Amino acid sequence: MLKDHIDLVQTQLEAYNEADLLKFCSCYHPEVIVTKLPEDSPVIQGMSELLQTYEQLFRANPNQSCHLESRIVSGEFIVDEEIIYGRKSHPEGFKARAIYGFRDGLIDRVWFT
Fold this sequence. Notes:
It is built from three helices and six strands, in the order H-H-E-E-H-E-E-E-E. The chain has 113 residues and is α+β, with helices and mostly antiparallel strands. The protein has one domain: Nuclear Transport Factor 2, Chain: A, CATH 3.10.450.50. A six-stranded mixed β-sheet has the order 2-1-6-5-4-3. The protein starts with a helix and ends with a strand. 13% of the residues are buried.
């Protein structure tokens, strides 16, 4: 199952870089919750919000890309350290960390730092 989770995280990363909204969202559980740490309230809750948020993000930033710096597997979680380039809000790029949790063979939680 761990390899499946690693493959799933990699697939969504590749779909993000291709701006393939449907492929990207297919990696996520319908009840996905995305939170930006240290706050504890969700910024995205459910598939509808995920679709809407990433459709707008892909449309507004057609040249964005995410470069994986490292991937850590810790128990049932995967942590990706990334650099995001091509965002209009951060033209020089910025570092991010995404912590992924899983349910029913899909990503159901993401915590961004």
